[in-house]
Amino acid sequence: MAPPNPAVPGLLSVPRITTLLASLLVAVGSGTNYVSYSPQLAARLNITHTQLNIVGLAANVGVYSSGPFWGRIVDVRGPRIPLGFSFVFLSLGYTGIRHFYDAGVPADSTLSNLNLGLLIACSFMTGAGGNAGFTGAVNSTAKSFPDKARATTTGLVLSGFGLSAFFFSTLAHMLFPGDTSSFLLLLAGGTALTTVIGFFLVRAIPLAAAETEHVDFAAVAAEAEATLFSHDHDDPSEVPLLAGAPADAEEEYVPDARGIELSPPRSLSTGRESHSRSRSRSKHDALEGPNIHGRALWLNPDFWLLFVILSMLSGTGLMYINNVGSMSQALFAKGNPTYDEVEASRWQATQVSTISLMNFSGRILIGLISDNIKNRYGMPRSYSLVIVSTLFFLSQLLAAQIGDVAGLWKASALVGLAYGTIFGLFPTVCIEFFGLSHFSENWGFLSLSPMVGGNLFSIAFGRNLDAHEPRESTAAAVAVRAAAHQCLEGRSCYVATLGLTGTTCFAAILLSALAAWRERRKLMAAGAVRPRVVWEDSEN
């Protein structure tokens, strides 16, 4: 076996750990779309819940529509170009939103269509900028660590994305509580700083040959053949037996291989040589793993299956996260004649912190679970999709039952956990299904899916909430509506939308089981034709 390349840093070397920590920092600055200042923005600009959801969705569209673009750049040119754009977009986006908030509108008027369009554009920029930095961070981490640790390390970086809302919300509460303008300034400066640090420290660290997912099988087979036929083989034990070698053996330069078929001696017929080379090429492809991209990706049924599942689940999570502030305020306002906007904001902040912390935890937890399922039990990570879908379904059932704002944190915790697990799991599932070579580009296309579910469910939530605005002219209703377009009917304001998302999540459970079954069937088919060492006597 060839000696290790001294130019390649070790698994726990300083360059590799530096990339991991810098990527984590960039991720913390990239997930700020999930911070909650929407109710305050709506009150300041006198816009409806439907308009507010469109502004929030613009950020989500910025995240997911830019995915293929950033992914392609990262795959070809590395992370620095997206990190540079991330700095510009995040700075301009949050500065623009702060400008509109500070300017406000008179109490008896609404935001003009032009200004609403500009506000939507600023929101879009925050999403696109955050995703630019995040894509560079995740890609660099995925390429810097071997498969056995990939889900755990990328899950750690993904967890930073989930922790972002909690980090910035807590920091703002400590430095300037209740000051939304300063909060937006913190978002503009803080996110820009993380991308500057990442620009200089985030890069993909090459792996040793034994740890790469793609192996030059032809070279390995040629070397084995040369060894096999350069000696007299009276004693077969002298010949290197690769079939059935344990995973931790020194001959690990053929990862995940249960055996190889060595070509017969050159003295055999040309037809057999051609047949052997053809079979070697097929084994080469099997051992390298999938490499699906471009047109082949869009024609692959597994891509569309994952696309639909991700759209259903992420759309549910986005709907809840974008509107949890409005949900908490609706529960707080019901039967409360002394509506206190400051107190309502505290309940809103509680939900944001809960979601963010559980989002963070879910991204780490699912990485550990999926790695354990694969490494210990030999099962694909796609089995974990059923767990994720079930968490989402249970979260919607729980949210529909809660009628007191003091208990809403339970649903927020479950939604945050589920949302963290889906985005902690799907990137590694994308690698398993379609390969690592075009991972960022493929993940970018797959991550277009949340725009479908996110737009559908969020707009449905906004229209549902607007339809339940108070019509009576009671003093309490007038007082509350003066602060914002506030529904006073508690969970009745939005429970119909939870029924829609709950049904969708149940369908996602079934589709997740189908995806896991399809992956298992493919692996079983591959295992049934696994090559083995074939011993043939040379013709002398």
Architecture overview:
One of its GO terms (molecular function) is transmembrane transporter activity. It is found in: Membrane. Pfam families: MFS_1. The chain has helices at residues 14-30, 38-45, 49-65, 67-77, 80-103, 113-144, 147-175, 180-201, 217-229, 270-288, 295-298, 301-333, 341-377, 384-401, 408-434, 439-446, 450-467, 475-483, 495-528. The chain is mainly α and 540 residues long. It has one domain (14-203, 292-525): MFS general substrate transporter like domains (Growth Hormone, Chain: A, Up-down Bundle), CATH 1.20.1250. Helix 4 (67-77) packs parallel to helix 6, helix 7 (147-175) packs antiparallel against helix 8 and helix 7 (147-175) runs antiparallel to helix 13 (341-377). The longest helix is centred in the middle third of the chain and has 37 residues, at 341-377.
List the helices and strands and how they pair.
Layout: H1 14-30, H2 38-45, H3 49-65, H4 67-77, H5 80-103, H6 113-144, H7 147-175, H8 180-201, H9 217-229, H10 270-288, H11 295-298, H12 301-333, H13 341-377, H14 384-401, H15 408-434, H16 439-446, H17 450-467, H18 475-483, H19 495-528
InterPro entries: MFS, MFS_trans_sf
Main location: membrane
Region (Disordered): 260-287
